[in-house]
Amino acid sequence: MGPDIETLIQKISRLPGLGPRSARRIVIHMIKNRDISLEPLLTSISRVFKNVKVCPICANIDTFDDICSICSDRTRRNDIICVVESVADLWAIERTSCFRGMYHVLGGLLSSIEGRGPEVLMLDKLTQRCNINGVIEIVIALSATVEGQTTDHYIKNFFGNRDIKTTSLAHGIPMGGELDYLDDGTLFAAFSARG
Length: 195
Ligand SMILES: [Zn+2]
Prior knowledge:
The protein is of the alpha/beta class. The protein folds into two domains: 3-54, RecR Domain 1 (Helicase, Ruva Protein, domain 3); 61-169, 3-Layer(aba) Sandwich (Dna Topoisomerase Vi A Subunit, Chain: A, domain 2), CATH 3.40.1360. The protein has helices at 3-13, 20-32, 34-51, 87-96, 123-133, 146-158, 184-192; strands at 52-54, 61-63, 80-84, 102-105, 137-140, 165-168. A four-stranded parallel β-sheet has the order 4-3-5-6. A two-stranded antiparallel sheet has the order 1-2. Helix 4 (87-96) crosses helix 7. The longest helix has 18 residues, at 34-51. It is elongated, with a radius of gyration of 20 Å. The structure holds zinc ion. Zinc ion (ZN) is lined by residues 55, 57-58, 60, 67-68, 70-71.
């Protein structure tokens, strides 16, 4: 095997969820199906590479002109905002179709060990959106980890003396559970029974 293919396998094997074995299988598959697999993939990767942006309103990742497809969707409610840790969690919630409001993607969870303070939560930005859109509810959809729950409490306190209801996902989420790994049914149930 020459260095080019070797490098490709190495790069693919470092992607999340893949290892050297699956990387080799993927590369062999792509080479064998050069025209129908490799070329469309190249086109697709280069399109995303050129056009992908972080939404200036919610921090979702998408290809768009000004704001992402969720923020620009007029059929969605803009008076209810769901706070998530990551874009992966936002996409997990979108998969279940249980939520028709807007999002606020955090820049991380509070962590004294890793030195992440309240600035990563960008609550000024969230407050501004609440004021502009007359937000009535903030749904805090964070993982049931220590950091997730600490952040949950911090956000609840922050909005404590305002006229905005703050809710959290129901305890269907197993302790230590990462949102993105939940099956759609569990996530849907946790969302519907929030309080
Ligand atoms: Zn957006």
